[in-house]
From TrEMBL, chain A:
Name of the protein in its database record: tRNA-splicing endonuclease subunit Sen34
Gene3D superfamilies xref list: 3.40.1350.10
Annotated signal sequence range: none
The organism of origin for this protein: Trematosphaeria pertusa
Record InterPro entries: tRNA_endonuc-like_dom_sf (IPR011856), tRNA_intron_Endo_cat-like_sf (IPR036167), tRNA_intron_Endonuc_cat-like (IPR006677), TSEN34 (IPR016690), TSEN34_N (IPR059049)
GO CC, one annotated term: tRNA-intron endonuclease complex
Keyword tRNA processing: yes
Record-level GO BP terms: tRNA-type intron splice site recognition and cleavage
Residue intervals of the tRNA intron endonuclease catalytic domain: 207-282
Basic and acidic residues composition bias: residue spans: 128-141
TrEMBL record, chain B:
Protein name as catalogued: tRNA splicing endonuclease-like protein subunit
Positions of the UniProt region annotated as Disordered: 1-20
Entry superkingdom: Eukaryota
Natural source organism: Trematosphaeria pertusa
Lineage of producing organism: Eukaryota, Fungi, Dikarya, Ascomycota, Pezizomycotina
All copies of domain tRNA-splicing endonuclease subunit Sen54 N-terminal, residue ranges: 72-139
Biological process annotations from GO: tRNA-type intron splice site recognition and cleavage
Length: 311, 438
């Protein structure tokens, strides 16, 4: 497997906003997916592809269970993003702001340069395909308006003009380039990444958490399961590549539940080519050895899968 | 019979219409091809092939790696604004809103409200515009230590979520991340979405019953008089007390002019009365989750939507957080239903259509950690549809009672007569024609 595009230093921050756990850093999102089986739910709109609901983008919403697993194992910590922004952005000093604006201007200029270069490349390629000389085409694509307005010469004329002009490829005056405005994805900078000392306590989780943690430690991926009437739909690997295998519902060890739940879950699961899975944590058992590394509270979990036999 | 059918159903290959792209995590490799060309005319890729389980072959690992990298690239697309298309927004911390001085794109046909020469954006509207890369929002500048004309620092996407969702509680707002998820999802599908009028209140006011169209007596006074006389003679003047039900026949020997009268006598189970004006059963409470949040309109092709003069909405949506809210009680549902307009089914449609439509309906958007499911809840007038009588008129259709049929299609009917139906977002219907603007 190829190495990460950009390595992430652990623990990485998880934004806590209005009671929800969000990830904004693309590297952290990829990292959690690759190394910790945490895929979360992308809830943001993709710029340029903002008229569809099939592919979504940043931010990534983590279930409280996912956030908790990451924090318990020391991979991440939780940051009060609301307070950080209130302090860092609403009360930003003038110097800081100007510095930040200059930096954004520089990035914007760089981006504009990139866009122009790409456009030139495209224009050149298109012209070459048509059998025209790239260099001449370049000049035309860059300054169509100037040539048309100032000299009154149509662009097609300048193309046919056979007199060698004076080095047209350097005709990109730097000052003509207008910087694009950029909306950054994360707030670092201008905010400095928060320190781990100010981390918030562990997220509170539903009673299905032990089952989630157990499945996660076994390399399974989980997504929210309301659509299938369960707590989690569980994947054997990255949901990008695999179909889910289980519809999991976490219960307490001694909890009584309706037998009809088994029938309903089993039938629904079988109908969508999955198995219904129930599981819970034994509160009286001693922690199993392999589980111990995950945290002192990890007790053994038993899980059962239910499938319609279909004789 | 029915059982056999059901067992067979999962053996069939899935039909094309059954495949819902939303249901599964999609392979971002398809988008990757598109992401390199930033043209505005992008079409969506087809569903990808997935594997059943890991077999650790190089092929599988490489495919997965390619998918992950494609996802990484697509998610890394920056939000940039050219000088020409730049919409500059300014954050206003006191109200947790944003304002735009110069309105340039069509987005503002269905977003924002003009006040004092500026276009004001509610938190969800501002956040959505920032997220889709259509607006460059700035943090406010402290005027005390600088000149007035200075530009503020750009608000990052992270900052926008922290502000518009996170600060919202501090200014007494009610927007939660779940509501925003629903708002943004509907906007992406092309619907027009505005806050319901009662947003700031604990619940919306009671909506009165719909006016019944007056039935004009077609016949003359004399025949009307006789008809009335017959009706009085033939309709039972009293309801049989329950202790008498154990004895004696429900239908006493007598003069019956129509079957309807006999059937009326057979109806001994009381039903919910929809002719009396609705009433709240619970006291008003600020933490009642079942209240209307959004009004939703389909984008009609030719008709231009005017945000200042909005027509009656096509759908009313109540956003529910699946992790904090349980299934509504009858009283909660009654109170929610009382706040949506009475919308009786029109004309003489088929009985099942009428039942499905219901008298009042609302859409519950149940959000489970960022994934919304839309459920339509309708107040189902079972007692108003005379099954036995229409058996005569529509023959082939009414061999089975509507209740049986409703059951088959996954509707649940309870004593109050509500139906629940999972609603598929009809996005294909609107996506193409929606106002794209940017």
């Amino acid at each position: 497997m190829a190495p990460d595009p950009t390595p992430v230093t652990e623990p990485f921050p998880i934004s806590h906003i209005a009671g929800r756990y969000l990830l904004f850093d693309i590297n952290a999102i990829s990292h959690a997916r690759r190394h910790h089986n945490i895929c979360g739910v992308l809830i943001g709109t993709l710029p340029n592809l903002s008229q569809q609901n099939v592919f979504l983008g940043i931010p990534l919403e983590l279930m409280p269970e996912e956030a908790r697993v990451l924090v318990e194992r020391g991979h991440a910590y939780i940051v009060d993003d609301v307070r950080a922004h209130r302090k860092g952005c609403l009360e930003m000093s003038r110097d800081e702001r100007l510095k930040y604006l200059r930096e954004m201007d520089r990035q914007g200029l760089e981006f504009a340069k990139g866009v122009r270069e790409k456009a030139e490349e495209r224009a050149e390629r298109a012209l070459r395909e048509k059998g025209l000389v790239g260099r001449r085409g370049k000049e035309e694509s860059e300054a169509p308006q100037e040539s048309a307005d100032a000299e009154g010469v149509s662009t097609s004329n300048s193309l046919l003009d056979s007199t060698p002009s004076t080095s047209p490829s350097v005709a990109v005056p730097e000052k003509k380039l207008e910087p694009h405005f950029i909306t950054p994805t994360t707030s670092y900078p201008p905010l400095s990444p928060p320190s781990t000392d100010a981390a918030l306590p562990l997220p509170s989780v539903p009673k299905s958490y032990p089952l989630f943690r157990y499945l996660n430690s076994r390399g399974y991926f989980a997504m929210p399961g309301l659509r299938f009437g369960c707590n989690y739909s569980v994947y054997p690997g990255d949901p990008l590549r695999f179909h889910s295998h289980f519809l999991a519902t976490g219960l307490d060890w001694d909890e009584e539940f309706e037998l009809l739940d088994i029938v309903g879950g089993g039938r629904l699961g079988t109908g969508v080519k999955k198995a219904y899975l129930i599981g819970g944590e034994d509160p009286e058992a001693t922690p199993a050895e392999e589980e111990e590394q995950d945290g002192a509270s990890a007790k053994p979990v038993r899980a059962f899968s239910i499938e319609w036999a279909g004789f | 019979m029915a059982d056999e059918d059901e067992d067979l159903s999962h053996l069939r290959a899935p039909e094309a219409a059954d495949i819902d792209l939303d249901e599964e995590t999609q392979d971002f490799r398809f988008l990757d091809k598109l992401a390199h060309h930033d043209t505005s005319s992008l079409s969506l890729p087809k569903r990808g092939e997935k594997d059943f389980e890991s077999h650790s072959t190089n092929l599988q690992l490489e495919t997965l790696e390619a998918s992950r990298q494609a996802m990484h690239r697509v998610l890394s697309i920056p939000r940039t604004h050219t000088q020409k298309n730049h919409i500059l927004g300014m954050y206003h911390p006191e109200t947790n809103m944003a304002y735009v001085e110069k309105v340039k794109t069509q987005h503002f046909l269905t977003i924002g409200r003009a006040k004092g020469g500026k276009e004001w954006l509610l938190p969800e509207e501002a956040l959505f515009l920032i997220e889709r890369g259509s607006m460059d929002c700035r943090w406010p500048v402290d005027l005390e230590d600088g000149e007035g004309a200075e530009v503020g620092a750009p608000m990052s996407l992270q900052g926008a979520y922290a502000a518009f969702i996170g600060f919202e509680g501090g200014v007494g707002g009610k927007l939660t991340l779940e509501m925003y998820t629903v708002y943004a999802g509907l906007k992406r599908s092309g619907y027009v979405v505005f806050r319901h009028g009662s947003w700031d209140d604990d619940r919306a006011p009671i909506q009165p019953l719909a006016q019944k169209e007056e039935e004009k007596p077609k016949t003359g006074y004399l025949s009307h008089f006789f008809a009335e006389l017959w009706r009085r003679i033939s309709t039972p003047s009293h309801i049989i007390p329950s202790q008498n039900l154990a004895f004696g026949p429900l239908i006493k020997p007598g003069l019956f002019r129509t079957y309807a009268d006999i059937y009326r006598l057979l109806q001994i189970i009381p039903t919910h009365d929809r002719t009396s004006p609705p009433q709240f059963l619970l006291p008003s409470s600020s933490d009642n989750p079942f209240r209307l949040h959004f009004d939703v309109w389909k984008t009609a092709g030719s008709q231009r939507f005017r945000k200042a003069k909005r027509p009656s909405p096509d759908f009313r949506i109540c956003v529910i957080n699946a992790r904090e809210t349980s299934i509504p009680t009858g009283a909660q549902l009654n109170d929610l239903m009382a706040t949506v307009p009475d919308d009786p089914p029109k004309g003489t449609g088929q009985i099942y259509q009428k039942l499905k439509h219901g008298r009042r309906n609302v859409i519950l958007a149940v959000v489970d950690n960022g994934i919304p499911s839309y459920i339509r809840v309708a107040d189902c007038p079972f007692s108003e549809e005379k099954v036995a009588l229409c058996r005569k008129t529509t023959r082939g259709e009414s061999l089975r009672s509507p209740i049986e049929k409703a059951d088959d299609e996954g509707m649940l009917a309870d004593a109050l007569g509500f139906t629940f139906k999972l609603k598929k977002e009809s996005k294909n219907e609107t996506t193409g024609r929606s106002a794209s603007g940017g």
